[in-house]
Specification:
By secondary structure, the chain is of the alpha/beta class. It has a single domain (about 5-300), classed as TIM Barrel. Helices cover about 30% and strands about 20% of the residues. The chain is built from 10 helices and 16 strands. The chain has helices at about 80-85, 85-90, 105-115, 140, 145-155, 175-180, 225-235, 250-260, 270, 275-290, and strands at about 5-10, 10-15, 20, 40-45, 60-65, 65-70, 95-100, 125-130, 160-165, 185-190, 195, 200, 205, 215-220, 240-245, 260-265. An 8-stranded parallel β-barrel has the order 3-4-7-8-9-10-15-16, surrounded by 6 helices. A 4-stranded antiparallel sheet has the order 5-6-14-11, with no helix packed on it. It has a two-stranded antiparallel sheet with strand order 1-2. Helix 3 (about 105-115) runs parallel beside helix 5 (about 145-155) and helix 5 (about 145-155) packs parallel to helix 6 (about 175-180). The longest helix is centred in the C-terminal third of the chain and has 16 residues, at about 275-290. Bound molecules: flavin mononucleotide. Flavin mononucleotide (FMN) binds next to loops. Flavin mononucleotide binds near residues 47, 128, 218, 245 and 269.
Amino acid sequence: MTIDLGCSFAGLNLRNPILVASGTYGSGLEAAPLADLSRIGGVVTKSVTTKARRGNPAPRIYETNGGMLNSIGLMNPGADGFAAKVLQEFTHLPCARILNIAGESVDDFATLTQRFGAVEGVDALELNVSCPNVSGGLDFGTRPAELTALVRECRGRTQRPLIVKLTPNVTDIVELAQAAVAGGADALSLVNTYQGMAVDWRRKRPELGSPSGMGGLSGPAIKPLALAALWRVRRAVSVPLIGIGGIRNADDVMEFIVCGASAVQLGTANFADPAAPVQVAAALDALCRREGISVLRELVGSLQVPRA
Ligand SMILES: Cc1cc2nc3c(=O)[nH]c(=O)nc-3n(C[C@H](O)[C@H](O)[C@H](O)COP(=O)(O)O)c2cc1C
């Protein structure tokens, strides 16, 4: 039986729906010796900002029950450094190449979109409007009108698919999803990390070194929250959705798919094993074979919630 795991949405053609989440590989180049990237759908880069960022003071990672907190603070070489040292090789990765960008102003996002949005080999841009670990990082992702204006500005500067990555740290994620779509988003990815904190009460100090003392929670602990966010957004907008949050195995992937995800991203799982996306892709093929699912995309959004 041939299993078709392929998915095409928003102008992207993926061999399977498994993507690497931003910030959990660098650009994919460093993972290539450990994971055969020709077996996954694609890689999303660490967020690139206009200027280089050193990130937050250490410690920047803290393991929690069922997950981890991070406060990396968007450490990256900046647009010039990325263009000089990484871009060329990144565009030759043997899977879809999605460049994640972040900024503090509309101008930053517009400049980055303009600069990278037509580069041969960059298959899509993902706008990170949702980083909880930098001052101002969440601003766009929490204000609907500003988000619409930001996405509209970027939309006018590239022909490539524009994916907007949403934060769950809002009262109503649906409102933000609708705002991104109103601005011209081709797809939405959700969720980024949940704001969280760990403390050492004896030292009376936060465990993370960020100026706020807080970080972003990811991993299996957030999966039920992420599924609920995706399901709510699925019923409110019609653009394709990319599910993110605590995915570790093929069953997790299926849960996001039936809730309406066209593709998924794995993040924290890569810290336990950088080859996790490759293994999950293989496991997904085996699962479909076992379950008699020949065309995976037919299950997207197939969840039924019985009405009382
Ligand atoms: C160490 C670390 C760094 C991250 N850096 C970024 C980033 O630069 N840009 C971004 O959009 N998301 C970033 N994220 C968020 C992930 O892409 C993802 O949305 C989140 O971790 C939830 O998925 P997971 O539970 O599979 O890890 C980061 C996550 C972690 C754990």
